[in-house]
Each structure stands twice: as C-alpha cells, then as structure tokens.
Please model this.
Amino acid sequence: MLRTGIHAGFFVAILLGSGCVWMRDLPYRDQRVAADRAFESQEYVLAAARYEALRDQYPETRIREDLMFRQGVALYSVCSYHGARDVFIDYLSSYPRGSYRADIQDYIKKIDVLMSRSTPAEARKLEEAKAMDNLDVLGRLLAEHPTDWRVLEAIGDVHWKIGNYDEAIDAYYKSQRIASTYEERELNNGKLILDSEGNPVPVNPKILSEMQIKEQPLRVYDLHAYTSRNQENVLGGDLQFYNLTGSLRNQGRQLLRDVEVEVTFRDLGGNILDVDYVSIGSLGPGEVRAFISRADDYDNLYNIVDHDVSVHWRE
Model:
C-alpha cells in the first residue's frame, strides 16, 4: 500500500512539475485555439496580437516556438515587414537550432527584398548591358540594383552561352526567388489565385470550389527545365545535367508544414529514371516559394525527356 502511494505521489509530482508541457498548456489552450482560428480566418492582426500575448506563457517549450513562428507569419501576411522581421530575428536568437530556422531565414530574405530601397535597372541600361554579354558590366549593374531579377537572369544567360552551366543555374534560381517574392505580393494584394495553367484569376467562391483549394491548396507553376549536352562531341554528347526550377504557392488559408516537392524524371517510354525530393519547409497562406530540383542518377541522364511534379505537406 505504501509503495502504491509513493508511485501515485511521484506521478502527480511529474504532472505538476515545471517541465510538464501538457499541464502548462491546459489553462491557455482555448486562447491558443482562438488565435489559430483567427489566423485561419485571415484575421492576421488579431492572430498576431493573440500569439504575442501567449508567448510568455510557454517559456522554453516547443509551443512557444510555434507561437513565435505563427506570429511572424501573421505579421508578414499583412505586410508588417518590420514587425515580422523583429519576431523572426528574436526567434533565431532564442532558438538558433530551432525547428523553423530554415523557414525563417527564407522569410527574412524575402522581407529584405521587399523592404529594399533598391530600384529596378533602367530598361535602356539593362538592354545595353545584355547586348554586351559582359559579366563584369552586368555584375556592376547588379551591384547598383541588387533586387532586380532581370539582371540576374541576364547574368545567367551569359554564363549559359559560355558553358558555365552551374553558375547559370545558380543565377536563374536566384532570379526566380526574387521574382517569386514580388509576384507573391502582387497576387496577395490583388486577391488573385492561380489557375491550373499558373495564370492569375480573381478569387471567388465558384473558383475556390472548382479548384478544390481546401483539398489541394498547393499550386506548382512556372517550371523551367535546363539541360545541356557536351558541345565538343559532334554527335551531341552525353547529357551534362537536368535541372528543374519552379515556383510553389500555398493558395489555402492554413499554414502548411513539411512541404516537399517530388520530381520524377522519365524516359521516352514513361519509365522512371530518377526521383528527387526537395524540402520546402513551411508555407504560410498566400506564400510563394521558388525551388530547384536536380537529377542525380547520372547513368540515366542521357535518357531523360520528361518530368512529373507532385507535392506533399502536413497541416
């Protein structure tokens, strides 16, 4: 009997201990649910305020990490970039190895682009620099206009022409990242959604129903395949690489976690030659993220003629 009482007392002590996340969450669970409900109803200002009020109730727990991340995303969603950036920087300081570290670094990069005072290059200057096919000239232009995706694209074109394929793909990918950041803002401000072809259309209940946004919130679009063969071989040579860049948008109202792009590379007969998985991380409502996929099975590169793209996520 004494042994049973000791065991019961020990169990109660564990539940009431400061480390018990479940006990700590219990008094504030309804408030947390209300904050999440405001977030999913796109009442982002209200959601951010509620997350802010709850943060200090969960010191040093995974729940506090979630609250900080969702607060930052909520502020970002209403274009409160300074506030969002402060929350994200606070998160990185508090959790240098946190679960959302990579996601937050992506958000900060996008915020820095959107808050930049850099202006686009003048059309005339850009065309003159492109006509020269000179990386030094384009590099100086990029230094003057670091958030102009068109300059990066032009740099990629020059690298491609001279056979620097890795540098070309890197420039193209950076260009697409910046372009997708601006596109995200335009789509959200214009209350637009992407159709099956990747074209923006106004949001309305009929469109949402037809596209089954709740069941399929992610849209993959703007895909570009980059391939090249050995130019020294008169017969065309072996395929040097097969890279695919694209953009992914969360068109739903929920924060999606563990988003992953699956790219299947096929031959002429539709047979699978290689499969690549690209980790995206978390995507907030309306968010656009660029991605790059590479075929790694070099024994089959020569035979790749097509690809399929699918996405996976967790709510």
